[in-house]
Amino acid sequence: MTFPKNSVGLVTPQRYVCDTPLALQNGDTLDGYELVYETYGKLKADKSNALLICHALSGHHHAAGYHSEDDAKPGWWDACIGPGKAIDTDRFFVVSLNNLGGCHGSTGPRTLNPSTGKSHGPDFPNVVVKDWVNSQVALADHLGIKTLAAVVGGSLGGMQALQWAIDYPDRVKACVAIASAAKLSAQNIAFNEIARRAITSDQDFNEGRYFDAEKNPERGLGLARMIGHVTYLSDDGMGTKFGRDIKSGDFGSGADVEFQVESYLNYQGRAFTQYFDANTYLLMTKALDHFDPARETNGDLVEAFAPALCKFLVLSFSSDWRFSAERSQEIVDALVRAKKNVASAVIESEHGHDSFLLPIERYVAALGTFLNQSLAEHPNQADGEPI
Amino acid sequence: MTFPKNSVGLVTPQRYVCDTPLALQNGDTLDGYELVYETYGKLKADKSNALLICHALSGHHHAAGYHSEDDAKPGWWDACIGPGKAIDTDRFFVVSLNNLGGCHGSTGPRTLNPSTGKSHGPDFPNVVVKDWVNSQVALADHLGIKTLAAVVGGSLGGMQALQWAIDYPDRVKACVAIASAAKLSAQNIAFNEIARRAITSDQDFNEGRYFDAEKNPERGLGLARMIGHVTYLSDDGMGTKFGRDIKSGDFGSGADVEFQVESYLNYQGRAFTQYFDANTYLLMTKALDHFDPARETNGDLVEAFAPALCKFLVLSFSSDWRFSAERSQEIVDALVRAKKNVASAVIESEHGHDSFLLPIERYVAALGTFLNQSLAEHPNQADGEPI
Questions:
Q1: Chain B residue numbers touching A215 (CB-CB < 8 A)
Q2: What are the residues whose beta carbons fall under 8 Å from the beta carbon of B275, sequence distance 6 or more?
Q3: Distance between terminal CA atoms of chain A?
Q4: Per-residue pLDDT tens for B304-345?
């Protein structure tokens, strides 16, 4: 297979084994852990061009390129990462990891607990956004990167980018939060709770020890995914995609009818259960619910952003109703009041929350322009490559 | 207990036993069936003041008043039905029934099949909106009512009101469809499918024969109710009601945190499973999905409405996103193009789809004004009561 010209091509995941204990927000300590990551592009000698990608609920380290010659699909954010793309690998050295608690190779519920010889399962601690950022700092140290040119993420990934700006102001030059929120709305928490409830009430969940019982709570996890799917799309977008087309059955004959959208959702739900871990799903949604940087400043988001030194780009999408433009506007308002350097845009799109994964022209242009300007303001002093 | 002055007071459900077979849309025939209903107000001698209430997904016949002196709560639409209320029982003789396939006493999955001695369960046919209307016509005949002054319903109830106007134009003078739709959007169907999937994948569902197994798919039915709850409210309304208040746990200590909204949803989900039947939930959501009067006119809703002779009132609510104002506007547009007499309003409310159950001032005023004017246009010729 020939890869597209603007693809990063073949990529190989790497592994960072950290022996330094990580103190978690819940009081636990991870004595050591492993992070799987990929990199795209070339790190300059002065290490000034590193860009960190933070993934969302169901994401992972494989954000761009292909794992093999016959790989059917590229990484999850290939629309935005590659030579000449918005996140331009001709300019940036892109680092993308699977977060702690994930299920794609980094230490999490699915990995073995050496002291028991079984997977951690439900005993894996509830890591939160601040924990991820701390582990990402350790990864940056491991790669010899003192300062990130940018931290970029959508949804839960955007929350990590914001937390970087607050917790490590001298280590990040630009923060991009796409389709994100400074904290979830009650409705958004409610959808997460329903998804969790679907998983935990599956008879095969076995209080999270489904691997021990050689089971998988497929129905519950599939339901959770279906809820995510419907709520991450917009009403109009679903109408365009599915309408009310009938998949099987016939109204006239009285046969049971199935709509295309039902068939699609059921397929997506089933497929998801084959590669995603239920305990990870619980952990990720809890991290979403709990994110609230203003909790440390008595609810004052302006004060929470006070330490930040970087530039900000805040993007949202018109039809995204789980992470609505209003939530992004709250971030922007607080940043403005905190006298930070912030650019923002609401992108017209009918694709709901999923828009952040798609090559929408105005979105890609806004992201690319911001990142390239950010890099230009910190010109490379060692390699002399013209920007 | 003293009932409020504008309450219909104590009411007693009645039973209509129909021996006339009912031919269903799916080709089956019900040889006979029973309908439980209540009435409020007094039928005039000329029987010109009858008003039929059609219930929605989880509704039933008990729409107003109290079943006993110590009844804690009145019927589900008590906000709108009573002396001097929008549906004024000083003027109207209100009939409210539990639909076929329901689980509150009318023939449905939960009632006994005389030929087997067991409950019908999943063998009960999938009745649809047209079937309900036909059974409601039989009930009207039983009560000696030739022409209804009005048929009124919200959501799935509004669909029945519309179907009455189309199928029995000479038997209805006014049709009120509140927070309804001429057909569901793909998103709305998707939420229904997720709810159904939650029920059918519960280990206690037993392919619908849970009564035979002395079980109840409580977790699945509870989940379905939770999905309904969240989607029938608005994001803003939930924010006002719950915010992000914490019910238990403590962020600082790392204890597991539960938000008020989670606690509320879990309570509501559990409570629902104690009085609602899972097979009825499946049946009602399928009836919602399948409703599409324009199917018989090759998708032309204007032509579908052509037979109607009555006045229409179409109401919707600004924050209702499962039965949005746009869906109601589609009904209004088609009625206008069909040259029907139609009034409509979009009511400002932050309570989402549930608004139709609430005493919202402008809503109640619009409903009351329309109904009283409708009645005034067909003045009573027998009783001589001034209107």
A1: none
A2: none
A3: 32
A4: 999 999 999 999 999 999 999 999 999 999 999 999 999 999
ipTM: 0.91
Cα B194 from Cα B179, distance rounded (Å)? 21
Q: Which of B190, B241, B251 sits opposite A230 (nearest CB)?
A: B190
CB distance A189–B241 less than 8 Å? no
* List of chain A residues whose C-beta atoms are within 8 Å of the C-beta of residue B324: 235
Kindly list the residues from chain A whose CB atom is less than 8 angstroms away from the CB atom of residue B193.
Answer: 226, 259, 261-262, 265-266
Sign, Cα dihedral of B316, B319, B324, B329: positive
> For residue B291, what is the nearest residue in chain A, using CA coordinates?
A251
Q: Could you give the residue ranges of the DSSP H alpha helices within chain A?
A: 129-142, 156-167, 186-200, 218-232, 235-242, 260-273, 278-290, 301-305, 325-337, 361-376
Question: Token pair for residue A262?
Answer: 């039902």
Q: What is the pLDDT of residues A343-382, one digit of tens each?
A: 999 999 999 999 999 999 999 999 999 999 988 875 444 4
CB burial of residue A172 (10 Å; 0-12, 13-18, 19+) = buried
Cβ-Cβ contacts under 8 Å for A361 (sequence gap 6 or more)? none
Q: For residue A12, give the nearest of A36, A35, A47 by alpha carbon.
A: A36
Active site residue A320: yes
The structure tokens listed for B210 are 């849970």
Of A184, A251, A321, the CB nearest to B295: A251
Task: Answer yes or no: do B186 and A242 touch at CB < 8 A.
Answer: yes
| Per-residue confidence (pLDDT) for residue B115, from 0 to 100 | 87
CA distance between the termini of chain B: 32
Of B38, B153, B137, B13, the closest CA to residue B93 belongs to B38
Q: How far is CA A8 from the centre of its chain?
A: 20
Instruction: For an interface test with A, give the residue of B128, B216, B230, B265 to mutate (most A CBs within 10 A).
Output: B230
pLDDT of residue B253: 64
Catalytic residue among A96, A353, A355, A374: A353
Rounded to 5 degrees, φ, ψ at A127 are: -75, 150
| Contact partners, residue A119, CB within 8 Å, separation at least 6 | A109, A110, A111, A112, A113, A211, A212
- Whether A193 and B262 lie within 8 Å, measured CB to CB: yes
**Going by C-beta distance under 8 Å and a sequence separation of 6 or more, which residues neighbour residue A116?**
none
Query: Which residues from chain A sit within 8 angstroms of residue B235, using beta carbons?
Result: 185-188, 321, 324
| Percent of chain A that is helix, strand, coil (3-state, to 5) | 35, 20, 45
Among A91-95, A268-272, A330-334, name the one with the lowest average pLDDT: A268-272
